[in-house]
Amino acid sequence: MIITLIKEETTQEYNKRMEKKYGSMEKLEKALEKAPKNLLYADLENWKLLTENPEENIRQEEIIITDNISIGENEIKLLNIIKNEKPKSVREIANKINKDPANTTNKINQLAEEGLVSFKKGLKNSKIPFLKYDKIEIAI
Predict the structure, then answer these.
(1) Could you tell me if residue 23 is left (phi over 0), alpha (psi between -120 and 50 degrees) or otherwise beta?
(2) Angle at Cα 67 formed by Cα 62 and Cα 73, nearest 5°?
(3) Residue 80 confidence (pLDDT)
(4) pLDDT digit string, tens, across residues 95-122
(5) Distances from the Cα of 18 to the Cαs of 28, 48, 86, 118, 122, in angstroms?
(6) How many CB atoms lie within 10 A of CB 100?
(7) Do the Cβ atoms of 134 and 8 come closer than 8 Å?
(8) What residue ranges define each of the domains in the chain, with the CATH number in brackets?
(9) Which domain of life is it from (predicted)?
């Protein structure tokens, strides 16, 4: 099974993300002079290209190839809640679907292990699940 995670971004969104990450294009250029790294160079070249072509949209893809993943109705329901409702905790998701928080945590952790869900730190060491992509394409 081939799963493609797709993140689509406008040039304006990309610019904001790069400004948050590097401050400005000039700061990125200075950082590149001090420590030449492939990632910094790629970010700079992409940023310049998109500045010259502001009507372009960006489509980033991450591909997962696996035979072990199991995506059923329950998993799709969890992914939809995480994407559309932006819950602040796994417990909040469990409450929404009327399921045991421990079982919900296990299922979301499995989705994270498979690369479909990410976490950021919340209050008191809680984990906030989120999706780094806009859509999923599955090829069998």
Answers:
(1) left
(2) 80
(3) 94
(4) 999 999 999 999 999 999 989 999 999 8
(5) 9, 11, 23, 20, 24
(6) 10
(7) yes
(8) 7-59 (no CATH), 66-139 (1.10.10.10)
(9) Archaea
End-to-end Cα, the chain, rounded Å: 5
CA distance linking residue 53 with residue 71, whole number of Å = 38
Asked if residue 46 has pLDDT above 80, the reply is yes
DSSP category for residue 118: E
Q: Answer yes or no: are the C-beta atoms of 25 and 13 closer than 8 Å.
A: no
Number of helices (H) and strands (E), helices first, in the chain?
6, 5
> pLDDT digits over 16-30, tens only?
999 999 999 999 998
- The chain-wide mean pLDDT, for the chain, equals 89
20-28 CB contacts, 8 Å cutoff, 24+ apart: 25/51
Contact (CB, 8 A) for 102 and 112 = no
Greatest alpha-carbon span in the chain: 54
Instruction: Report if pTM > 0.85.
Output: no
Structure tokens belonging to residue 55: 């009507």
| CB proximity list for 120: less than 8 A, separation 6 or greater | 127, 128, 130
